[in-house]
Design brief:
single chain, 31 helices, Cytochrome Bc1 Complex, Chain A, domain 1, 18% strand, alpha+beta
Length: 942
């Protein structure tokens, strides 16, 4: 169900009290199963296969396909552990109609990316194959459905390909190894106590992965890949009758095997006693505790079920807001805390209380978590608190309803996947909106407060505690943790004070300025205004989303314009000001003040620019402009001291054990190799935090933001131009300005060292080596050079995957990166990285470098040129219909002083691009003379 579990979390800061409440149908029966959305076609073939079809135009000219198999690792026998997941790999390595890599080559040839548009996943209970293709060519459409059919019944399991793929699966397993996995390996047997889930992790046994014969794959495939356990999902910009014909034609001929085993749901048994996992690890950097209260699942089939889930979600939101407020104290009791619900497989769920703890305050942190939970359970919440959360939920649902025609096909495909696997209702957004309105309109506070009764549960409980391994630190005992829980429950916090301010968001409307110069760029539909204070405003109205306006504002300069000894105050300035609030409101008061509105605004100071990013709804535009005005002109100074203490305290806790993290140590070593002791490239540690200074951060913030004449504001979305002009004149043209020439980012003398460099670090317990290969240097910046580098990067991504993964089975994935920088001077940074078996690292680096040298000396392969070109064209075709695409491109065009029309000219540039330029880019931007090779090896390595 689109909103059942996930929707409200997406709209955390939005809300409204609707003037007109949506109505339920007159014949709506609260106790009857919810109906199926009339916009989705659901069918079942004679062999039991179910299908879900929906016509949807976002993105245009695309279809999102899924083959869902209702079987996963739980269906494996003891000698098959890992086969369900390994089998998913084999679906890409040879089927009846697609030999190894032919499937991937076909998809890349039509502009789709492996991993993004072609992928699969295996879990305990199901296996999902995903495919997105353009709907503009009958041959491609037929092939797409043939791929689904082949996955369902025609995987070949060539023994040679199985052998070749074993290494890839092992490397996927290896990439997940580390402190987190070691901790999970000890916790999962308790979370899933005495259940099959604890013994069937989807990644499986590496002994089985490395040794299972082809017959074992076929046995699992023939038993569990059968039509009565399959669902086919198709959502996209297509003719539903044609799609249904394809499904019926291709999948009706599938047959269920005789004497097929019954699919039995695995149970998670109850246990009266409390189970404990108390673990330390030498690579963990922070302390935490989680408490699971296991519960029986509740239904979600009827209106009554839906209403109960809404009430539960309200309760969690209310409690999480209170828990979050404690983190803003000057000396907070914990780093973070939250409550929520989670499913434990399909037969059990749990309420989970989580807390990130402070060293020396373990007992206090757990006590305060439990005390807040107990206070809410005992005293309940106030009507004002609930009204704000209700308004948030209604507004979130109203926005989803308004955007129903702009919902991405992948969202629907995921929803219908859940409908198939766990029978989640799919009543459609119209009925869900009506249920939200009807159920929340007259909701009784006492009914919400009763949810807290479940937190008094004593049995069926699991307590998990993790901490860094440190000399002299003694882990708490089970009795210590229980004592903290019980002490917290009995702790009297007094009555909760709902700190709400009645002051208006902006007490006095500023005197408006003027728009002194206007241009209209007709080809791209963009308004270009210069204001009386020197600010520039770029406005592009769109109809891509009905309830979205995006903004990005920037000014060149950033932290490059402060001295080295002011760098830390500059780096932490927006963090402090973000927590102190704006105008007369502290952060808590501001959030409550903005309840009922779609408003998000974040300031940032980067190395070469300062910026504001935000989003709003057309109906909240004036409030958004007020927020922008206040953020720039009136940061809250009276709460700055409290924010400073709180932020510094939490940062100190976060960096206290940083040296225990292999990844952090590795990154620090790379920075040192490139930048030596340059003050702007030192790790953030306790000593550096002492350089924080609240008043200096405030001064830097004001200096960077209170000069409107240096700013460009870019707006994209559902904008009515004439009323928008008034907001711009009132709230942007009135911003303060200093005049003078535009500021420019300055050179800081921190260019990376040139030449051949190396980093070799031994840190970490797992048998895994992480490799990073970097190229850096000066470069002439131009749009043409930037695109040539992007093209070269695309070519190398294909070759690295083919050689390092497919041919050698040495990695699970390779990341190739590359960018051309413009500020403060032209430069490039590029390279590639992966994790692998320690004994294979040098050979894989050599193979990777050979792919670069091959491109430099021989040029690109024609088939790969066509793949990259088609991918770029398809991405542009999709992006041109999205607000985010226009926002980032318009910002870029202004910053680079380019014509906006160049955005539309991109496809012609791609088609005319000479692949020889990509070869030249590989020579320029992957220069072997400026090469750093970095290894993070396990500690035992000789």
């Amino acid at each position: 169900m689109q909103s059942f579990i996930k929707l409200v979390s997406v709209y955390l800061l939005i809300a409204l009290s609707p003037a007109v409440w949506a109505q339920l149908p007159e014949d709506f029966d609260m106790t009857a199963p919810l109906p199926v959305d009339p916009d989705v076609r659901v069918g079942e073939l004679d062999n039991g296969l179910r299908y879900y079809i929906r016509k949807n135009g976002r993105p245009e000219n695309r279809v999102s396909l899924r083959l869902v198999v209702n079987a996963g690792s739980l269906q494996e026998d003891d000698d098959q552990r890992g086969i369900a997941h390994f089998l998913e790999h084999m679906a890409f390595n040879g089927t009846k109609h697609f030999e190894k890599l032919e499937l991937v080559n076909f998809l890349e040839g039509i502009g789709m990316r492996f991993g993004q548009h072609l992928n699969a996943s295996t879990s305990f209970d199901e296996t999902i194959y995903k495919l997105e293709v353009p709907w503009d060519d009958q041959e491609s459409i037929d092939k797409a459905f043939l791929i689904l059919e082949d996955w369902a019944t025609n995987i070949t399991f060539d023994p040679f390909e199985i052998e070749a793929e074993r290494g890839v699966v092992v490397e996927e397993w290896r990439s997940g190894q580390g402190a987190g996995q070691r901790i999970r390996d000890q916790q999962i047997p308790l979370i899933f106590y005495n259940s099959r889930y604890a013994k069937r992790l989807p990644i499986g046994s590496m002994f089985v992965v490395q040794n299972a014969p082809a017959e074992r794959f076929r046995d699992f495939y023939e038993k569990w890949y059968r039509p009565d356990l399959m669902g086919v999902i198709a959502v996209g910009d297509f003719d539903p009758d044609e799609v249904e014909r394809q499904i019926i034609t291709r999948f009706s001929r599938l047959e269920n095997p005789e004497d097929a085993p019954e699919r039995v749901e695995a149970k998670v048994p109850d246990h009266e006693e409390t189970l404990f996992s108390i673990v330390s690890d030498p690579e963990i950097t922070g302390m935490s505790a989680r408490i699971y209260l296991k519960l029986d699942p509740v239904g979600d089939q009827t209106g009554e079920d839906y209403r109960r889930h809404l009430i539960e979600r309200i309760y969690f939101s209310l409690l999480n807001k209170r828990l979050s407020e404690r983190t803003l104290e000057a000396n907070p009791p914990y780093i973070s805390a939250s409550v929520g619900a989670t499913n434990l497989g399909r037969s059990k769920r749990a309420y989970v209380m989580s807390v990130g703890l402070v060293q020396g305050k373990v007992q206090e942190g757990i006590e305060l978590l439990m005390a807040e939970v107990a206070r809410a359970s005992r005293d309940g919440f106030s009507q004002s608190e609930m009204d704000r959360v209700k308004a948030d939920m209604i507004r979130g649902m109203d926005r989803a309803y308004e955007e129903r025609e702009n919902t991405q096909s992948g969202v629907f495909a995921a929803e219908y996947t859940r409908a198939f696997t766990v029978d989640e209702p799919i009543p459609g957004i119209a009925l869900e909106r009506a249920m939200h309105h009807a159920f929340l309109k007259d909701l009784d506070l006492e009914e919400v407060n009763r949810i807290g009764d479940a937190f008094r549960q004593q049995g069926n409980r699991v307590i998990l505690f993790t901490a860094p391994e440190a000399e002299g630190y003694e882990l708490p005992s089970e009795q210590d943790l229980l004592a903290a829980l019980e002490s917290g429950k009995s702790k009297d916090l007094g009555a909760y004070v709902d700190d709400v301010s009645d002051e208006p968001l902006l007490a006095e409307i500023p005197e408006a300025g003027e728009i002194v110069e206007e241009r209209y760029h007709e080809a791209v539909g963009v308004y270009d205004w210069t204001l009386s204070n020197g600010a520039r405003v770029i406005v592009k109205p769109t109809d891509f989303k009905k309830d979205q306006v995006l903004m990005s504002a920037y000014s060149e300069g950033g932290s490059s314009l402060v001295s080295d000894d002011e760098f830390i105050p500059a780096m932490t300035a927006t963090m402090l000001l973000g927590e102190s609030g704006i105008g007369p409101f502290n952060t808590i008061q501001l959030e409550k003040k903005l309840a009922g509105k779609t408003l998000r605004l974040s300031p940032s100071i980067g190395s070469t620019s300062e910026s504001l990013s935000g989003s709003t709804s057309p109906q909240d535009l004036e409030e958004f402009f007020k927020l922008v005005y206040l953020q720039i002109t009136d940061p809250n100074e009276k709460d700055l001291a409290n924010a400073f203490e709180s932020v510094k305290f939490r940062l100190s806790e976060m960096v206290a054990n940083r040296e225990k993290s292999p990844g952090a140590v590795f990154q620090d070593a790379i920075e040192e190799a490139y930048y030596g002791d340059h003050p702007r490239h030192q790790p953030l540690d306790i000593d550096r935090l002492d350089e924080m200074e609240a008043r200096l951060s405030l001064e830097i913030f004001k200096d960077r933001f209170q000069n409107a004449g240096d700013f460009v504001f870019v707006f994209v979305g559902a904008i009515e131009v004439e009323p928008f002009r008034d907001y711009v004149r009132t709230y942007l043209a009135s911003l303060p300005t200093r005049g003078g020439p535009p500021e420019r980012a300055r050179e800081l003398g921190d260019k990376p060292k040139s030449g051949r460099l190396s980093v070799d670090i031994k840190k970490g317990l797992e048998e895994k080596t992480t490799v990073r290969v970097f190229f850096n240097g000066d470069a002439e910046w131009s749009p043409e050079n930037r695109y040539a580098l992007a093209f070269a990067r695309g070519l190398l991504n294909i070759r690295m995957r083919e050689v390092l993964r497919e041919d050698n089975g040495g990695v699970y994935g390779v990341s190739v990166f590359g960018s051309l920088g413009r500020l403060p001077e032209g430069s490039y940074s590029s390279g590639f990285g992966f994790s692998c078996d320690p004994g294979n690292a040098e050979n894989l680096v050599r193979l990777g470098l050979m792919q670069i040298i091959e491109l430099q000396e021989e040029g690109p392969r024609p088939e790969n040129v066509q793949k990259v070109r088609e991918t770029h064209l398809r991405e542009h075709e999709r992006g041109i219909k999205e607000n985010g695409f226009w926002l980032s491109n318009l910002v870029g065009m202004v910053a680079e002083d380019r014509d906006f029309e160049d955005i539309l000219n991109f496809p012609e540039r791609v088609k005319a691009f000479d692949a020889k330029a990509a070869q030249e880019a590989a020579v320029l931007y992957f220069d072997m003379r400026n090469l750093l090779v970095a290894y993070l090896r396990p500690e035992y390595t000789e």
